[in-house]
Write a structure and sequence with these properties.
single chain; 160 residues; alpha+beta; Aminopeptidase; 6-stranded mixed β-sheet; 4 helices; 6 strands; 26% helix; 35% strand; globular; binds coenzyme A
Amino acid sequence: MWTIFQSHVAEGETYVHDGTTSRDEALDYWFAPGVATWVAVKGGERILGMYRLQPNQLGRGAHVANASYMVSPNAQGVGIGHLLGEHSIGEARRQGFLAMQFNFVVSTNSRALHLWKRLGFSIVGTLPKAYRHRRLGYVDAYVMYKLLEDPARWALPEED
Ligand SMILES: CC(C)(COP(=O)(O)OP(=O)(O)OC[C@H]1O[C@@H](n2cnc3c(N)ncnc32)[C@H](O)[C@@H]1OP(=O)(O)O)[C@@H](O)C(=O)NCCC(=O)NCCS
């Protein structure tokens, strides 16, 4: 997981973490309390990709899930991201989340954008020049959102 994380972070095109992120900090990110982390594994041992799922906000915003994904550079473009995306949506539903939000999709990350749109996410906001891309300089980032259930059927928790 560290190797995969390091390679994407070193590229400086998709994640806000930079090259100063230590292994411990990276593992804290993937295994923070309240975070559910899943990996796609080949042959029982080789990790091809991973995602982390957590509530996007506390309390009154906690019905919306947030997730982050990374696929090994050697395994990109062959459907692992799609598998992880589908799994995370199923897992979010299973955990009772009603919607899902990506807070920071770099606008130049065309592969991720294509994938998230294909999985039903829409761009709901643009953060102008919010990302400092290693090659392209300041570029926009998107907030993307997907309802997991029809809001007409959402029930309020009894304790409200
Ligand atoms: C984004 C990421 C998770 C996608 O996973 P992946 O395994 O590479 O993606 P998949 O192979 O499942 O699917 C990629 C889709 O994008 C398409 N695609 C590939 N390269 C593309 C490009 N340059 N532009 C547009 N679409 C592209 C593929 O055709 C495929 O679509 P299809 O299923 O309709 O044919 C992965 O590439 C990754 O880890 N990237 C670096 C980290 C990152 O960006 N994480 C997400 C942050 S929001």
